[in-house]
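Lab manual, section 2.4: Encoding a predicted structure.

Procedure: take the sequence of the chain (156 residues), apply the prediction step described in section 2.3, and record the output as C-alpha cells. A sample record is shown.
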Amino acid sequence: MKVFRKMRRKEYTMSADDILKALKAQNHGFLGTVDKDGCPYVVPLNYIYHDGHIIFHCALEGYKLDNIRNNPKVCFTVCVAQEMIPEKYNTQFISVIAFGEAEIVGDCKQKRELLVRLGNSLAPEVEFSCDEKTVEKTCVVRIKVEHIAGKNKVVY
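Recorded output:
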C-alpha cells in the first residue's frame, strides 16, 4: 500500500469531518489521470461523494476512460472557496485532494442506482428519469478513496 506524504503546513490541516463536509458541499471537481505514455491529464467534471467513493458519469469512450483503463490510480481535487488577498500577496482557500482507484461500474442495476443518485443530487429540482437506454449509453465511474486531505488556509 502506498504511503502518502503528510501535509507540510500542518496548521492548515482540516479535520476528517470538515473534509467530508467540503467534499459533499461541492459538485464540481478536477480528475487527474495519466495516459499510457506517462502524460498527465486533468479534466473538470461533476461528481457526488457517496459511501467513501467519488462518483461521476461520462461518455462510454474518451481519453479519460482510456487513461483509467490503462492505470486506474487517480487524483481528484475540489476547491471549495478561494479569495485573493492582494495586500498580503496571498490567497485564502479551502481545498480537498483525494487519491484512489477508479472503477468503471459494469453492473446495470448498480449503474442505474448511481445515475439516479447523481441526477437527484446534481439537479434536485428536476425529476430524473433513468431508463434502460440512458443506462446503456452512459458510463459511471466510482473512485474508491484511499487517501484524502483537506487544507483550510485563512489569511489574517
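Check your result against the sample. The first strand starts at residue 28 and ends at 34.
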